[in-house]
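User: Some background: our group keeps a shared notebook of sequences we're curious about, and every so often someone picks one and asks for a predicted structure to add to the entry. Today it's my turn. The entry only has the sequence so far, pasted here. Could you supply the structure so I can complete it?
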Amino acid sequence: MTRLPPRLVPDGPDADAAPAAQGVMVRAYGETISLLDHIAGLELDGIVGLESLFAEAIDRRESLMLPGFGAPGLPPTEVARLDDEIRRRIDLLVARGRHDGTVDKTLRGVEVVVCLSLLVQGLPEYDDYDAAAQALALRFVESIAIGARSRLSAF
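Assistant: Of course. Here's the predicted structure to add to the notebook entry:
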């Protein structure tokens, strides 16, 4: 069995046992989907929505699960279904930005998923990781922004 990401491991000797791992993964996916639904529900313009998503995801990374890292304890079909749900929601945020003209029309949802997944996964041994992740996220978001606008917030 693939071990749980260290940031998601609950306390206790059986943390990687199938029932505990399954519960942790279901909860982490649920938190991620809830966050995406919350951001979408704010009806922000595309670039601000994506900026908010990155800021919130980095802030709450200890409890989130994003595509690309597997999910021990869950059947592969369930992992694929949950990953697709996340990708679909991110695609909607990207489409909003393309539609309102605030993000580059060539931006693809998969690019947001990959960047977000890497930043949320983290580097547990790296001092001040959150500040570095926030800086990288801001650079990514600024690189996809379109139009004359004030500099995006630094979270």
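Suggested note for the entry: The longest helix spans residues 76-100. Residues 21 and 47 are 35 Å apart (CA to CA).
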